[in-house]
Every structure is written in C-alpha cells, then in structure tokens.
Amino acid sequence: MKILDKYILKSFLGPFFATFFIILFVLVMQAVWFFFDQIAGKGITFDIILKFIYYASLIVLSQALPIAVLLSSIMTLGNLSEKYEFAAAKSAGISLPRIVRSLIVFAIFISAANFLISNYVYPYANLKIINLKLNIKKKQPALALVPGSFNSEIPNYQIKFDEKYGEESNLLKNVLIYDLSERKGNKKIITAKKGKIVSEEGSRYMTLILNDGHFFENHIKQNTTYEDKKKMPASYADFDEYTINIDVSALDKDDLGEEKYTKNFNMLSLKQLKDTVPTLKQNYDEYINGRAKTLGLDVRVNELHQYPDSLINKKLNPIILDNFELKQQVNILNTALAKTKRSINNIKNNKESLKQRRKVLNLYDVEFYNRVALSLSCILLFFIGAPLGSIIRKGGFGLPMILAIAIYVVYFFTNSFGKNLAEESSVSAIVGSWIAVLALLPFAILLTIRASKDKGLFDINSFLSPIINFFKKLFSKKNKAI
C-alpha cells in the first residue's frame, strides 16, 4: 500500500469509528426507549435489561454502518479539501478516483461485512429479542394485555378491553372477561365499564379491580341433556366494585431464554427465506383455488351447460322468467337474491383473510430483497458522501452532519415507502426494496462526475448564461432596428 493510500485510509478510519459508535448508541437508545417504559419498575432484573440492549445493538448494526460510511466520507473528504490537500494532489496529476481508491476498497469491504451481519447476526438478534420480549410479558402478564382483542396469556381467563391508559398503563376501559377457571366453558361472564390492574413484585397473584359492571353465571352441570340445560338456573348481578385475584404463579416457571417463535420473516437467513417463500406461495395459491371452488359450488357453475341448437326448445321465451308463473318467478328471484347475498358476504369475509395472507407472503419477499439492497447501500452512500465532501470543502461535524442526516432521511423514507408499497402489493417486492437505491443512484453518479471534473455542486452560470445571452441578442436586434 502506498503512502497516499495509507494516509487517506487513516484519515477516514478515525471519523468512521467515531461516527459509527455515536450512531450505534443513538439507535440502541431509541430501540430501548420504546420498550423501557413498559418494563421499568416491573421487577425485571438488570441482567435481562443488558441482554435486551445487547440484542438491540446487534439488530441496529446493519443500519448504523451505512450512516457511518456516509457521514465519515463527507467529513474526511471535506476536511482534506478544506486544508487544500486535494488541490496539492491534483496539482501533482493525481485524479480524485485515484485519491479515494483505498476508500472505495474499504467501502466494498464494509458492504460485504454488512451483508454478513444482515444475513446471520440480524436474524439471530431478532430471534432472541422477540422471544425475550414475549417471555418478559409472560412473567408480567399485565404487559401482555393488548386492547381490542381477547387476551389468553393469563391462565384460566379470556380478557378483552377497549383501551389501556393511565401513568402505569394499568387502567382499562370497557372490560369483558370470560372466567374459565371451572373448566366448563364460557359459563361465567363479567363485564365492567372500568378496570384496574394491581400487581406487586414477588406476589403470586394479579388483582383485577372492576367498577360499574355486570356479572352473569350459567349453572350448568356436566352430562346433562339439552332440555335439562334450558331448565338450569342462572345467577346475575350488577356491582359497583368487584375484585378478582388471579393466580399467575405458574408463569414464574417459564424460562426467559425459551425460544418458541423461530419462523418469523426477520428471524431467517437469506437461504431460509428462499426455502420458505415457495411454500408460502404454494399455500397462498391453494387458498385462492379453494375459495374459488367454494364460490363456484355455491352458485352451481358446474350445472351450467351449453346445449346444441337441436335440443333447444323453440317454444320457450328468450326472457327466462316469462316461462314461469308469477309465484314461481318470485321464488326464483328470491332464491337468486339470497344466493347472491351469500356469495357477496363470503367474498367480504374472505377479503381480509386473503389480504392478510398476501401481506405475510409479501413480508418474506420484501425481507429477502431488502437485505441485499441494504448491504449495497454502504457503497451507494459512499459515492454520495465522498464527492459531496470534496465539493463542499468543509470538514468537522457541522455541515457534514446536516447533509448526512438529510441524505439518510431521504434514503430511509424512500426505502420505507417502497417497502410499504410492496407489502400492500402496490408494487413488486424487488421494486419496493430497491426503490431507494434507484432513486439515489443518479444523484451519486452526478456528484461523482462533477467532483471528478472539479466542478461545484450547482453551476448557476450554466443555467443563467443561456438566458442572459438570449436577452442580449434580443436587445441588440432592437437597437439595430432603431
């Protein structure tokens, strides 16, 4: 390695590692912040929190590297240009591509490392952190209660509520509870307008205090006939306050390191994704074919036949209903209307299920292509940052930091927009994953060309000179005419 390459690489590595660790810290704190308010004061030990931070660090590694490459390339080349070191090199006949040759090799190396991180480290960290979150919620059942759907994490109870609020998120609104503790099905039902979860560290019970509600219990014995069940008594009552003590000691036996979820799209390597996607597509196609066959059987498509002209009764009226009496016409129309409504309802009911299945399939497809695109983003952002730094001729953390943030925000939102479009089937998975790269690639090429020719970011004269020349010619013609 020549002295110039060593010097350029040494000038780059300092800002790179500094910016990398700063960005990594910021991203980890952002990830921890969203979850920390849920686990703070809930009896979670410090070693579990450290595990969470460790896995969060591994997850954001692949995001921190492109930002670090972008920021450090702007800073390094801006600093070299600001000190006129680039001018000295160019005066000696050394071109910009030759000056940054060692940095290009390093950017390719970082891109390859980012690919390995995305393919092996990122899925492993997601596997660990998702299972850790779920196991923490099982240790603290109040954390697992989600508004808007039935929650079955708490033993012997099905709990549903509209909203969770309050400083500790322990206040519930419009609560519905099925008490299954007697193993007799949904025979005991409790509703309340408000509820409160009270749990103490180390206690085997979680207390649920309900206010302004209704209690109903159907007293049905086992092995009774249907007629006897209708004669069984039921008890019901209104209450101002009702307290339920739920035994959650069984959850303490669960291991926080247990891994029950291993097949999520963000837990698989590229090879595993490639093997999983065909199976998902086959299941999706089978589901669509099954729905289509059901619809066909419902409207009796198989009974529709095309008869030869020789078998058609010429005496029949072409308007089919006119061949029947009025009462029969009404029956036919009612039957047709009922079948049509049933088919429409089936289509509406299956619409959300079909949409969800397609979205799950898209998630796996998008994840596959997005990891490759994210790895190559290191090279792309380097070819934006390096020429931009040499053009602005400004080092340090001031202007380079602003430019790096602005460029990465554009990349991030474009990438997120493309992924969302692909997940909703508006565009293909490969287009949605690569749309950010395709959007910024012309900008990278333009900056590289202008920096190689030692031109500014925007040459205003090139835009103004044609306009000025036009008006000069116009006024000169007027003067001659006078």
Summarize it:
The chain is α+β, with helices and mostly antiparallel strands. The protein has helices at 3-39, 46-82, 85-91, 96-99, 101-139, 141-144, 226-231, 270-298, 326-392, 399-423, 429-452, 460-481; strands spanning 157-160, 163-165, 171-179, 188-199, 205-218, 234-247. Strands 1, 2, 3, 4, 5 and 6 form a 6-stranded antiparallel β-sheet that branches.
Question: What would you note in describing this structure?
Answer:
It holds the Pfam family LptF_LptG. InterPro entries: LptG/LptF_permease. Residues 330-357 form a coiled coil. Its main location: membrane. This protein has helices at residues 3-39, 46-82, 85-91, 96-99, 101-139, 141-144, 226-231, 270-298, 326-392, 399-423, 429-452, 460-481; strands at residues 157-160, 163-165, 171-179, 188-199, 205-218, 234-247. The protein is of the alpha+beta class. Helices cover 62% and strands 12% of the residues. Strands 1, 2, 3, 4, 5 and 6 form a six-stranded antiparallel beta sheet that branches. Helix 5 (101-139) packs across helix 9. The chain has twelve helices and six strands.
What coarse outline follows from CA principal-axis ratios?
extended
Helical amount among residues, as a percent range?
55-70%
Q: What is the N-to-C succession of helices and strands?
A: HHHHHHEEEEEHEHHHHH
Mean pLDDT: 77
- DSSP strand count: 6
Strand content: 5-15%
Multimerization status: single chain
SS field, number of helical segments:
12
Classification by helices and strands: alpha+beta
Separation of termini? 71 Å
Task: Give the biggest sheet.
Answer: 6 strands, antiparallel
Radius of gyration: 34 Å
**Which regions contain 5 or more consecutive residues with pLDDT less than 50?**
460-464
